[in-house]
Every structure is written in structure tokens, then in C-alpha cells.
Amino acid sequence: MTVVDPARPDGTQISLEPKGHPAAARFTDALIADGIPFCMLGVEDVQAEYERLVALGETFTQPPTEMGPVIIAVLDDTCGNLLQLAQFIR
Predict the structure, then answer these.
(1) Taking the domains of the chain in order of start, what are their residue ranges?
(2) In Å, how far are 23, 62, 65, 76 from 54, measured between CA atoms?
(3) What is the dihedral of CA 18, 6, 54, 48, to 10 degrees?
(4) What is the spatial distance between Cα 71 and Cα 46, in angstroms, rounded to a whole number?
(5) Can you tell me the distance from the alpha carbon of 26 to that of 70, in angstroms, rounded to the nearest whole number?
């Protein structure tokens, strides 16, 4: 499945692969157990995206947190993955 922002259909696309392979479930379960995000998505403003997504009902496992040169937030994609939003501090 390929996902794209409906407001920007020519923008970045994300391809989501099914977890049909037996190793995929074990791998993602181990990442979840250790709290490791499956992928990182760069954003301009983590706090703004956090507030927007929370207002839409999204569940975060970590609110925006400054960690050295980045601010990150981690959310549960409801499909068994943790996703990290990251903003590089300039």
C-alpha cells in the first residue's frame, strides 16, 4: 500500500509492506518491546505536529522531547509500529 497526503498528491509517498513474512512480526514485536521506532519522519515543527495529531485522536508514547540536536516525539501507528517524528534544531 502506498500512502500520500491528499492535500499534496504529488508529494512524498510512503510504501507500507504487509507483515506476511514470519520474521516481520517477530522483528516489529521486538522493536515495540524495546520502545524503538520503526521509522523516523522529519518534520518542520514537532510540537505543532504533536498537537495536530493529538487533536485528531493519535496516541503518543513519548511527547515532544529535546534530545541534543533534535526534538522527537513517538507515536503508535495502531498497526504494531512506533513512528518517530524528528525536528532538527537549528
Answers:
(1) 2-88
(2) 32, 12, 15, 12
(3) 120
(4) 7
(5) 29
Q: Which CATH architecture has domain 2-88?
A: Roll (3.10)
CA distance 53 to 47: 10
Distances (CA, A) of 41 to 21, 22, 38, 55, 82: 25, 26, 10, 19, 11
CA 23 to the chain's CA centroid:
21
- The alpha helices in the chain, defined as continuous H runs, are 22-34, 46-55
Say if strands 13-15 and 2-4 run parallel, antiparallel, or are unpaired.
antiparallel
Question: Per-residue pLDDT tens for 58-90?
Answer: 999 999 999 999 999 999 888 778 899 999 997
Q: Report the distance separating Cα 70 and Cα 77, nearest Å.
A: 21
Given a cut of 70, whether residue 1 has pLDDT beyond it is no
**Do the bridges between strand 82-88 and strand 39-42 make them parallel or antiparallel, or are there none, so unpaired?**
parallel
Q: Model-level pTM?
A: 0.78
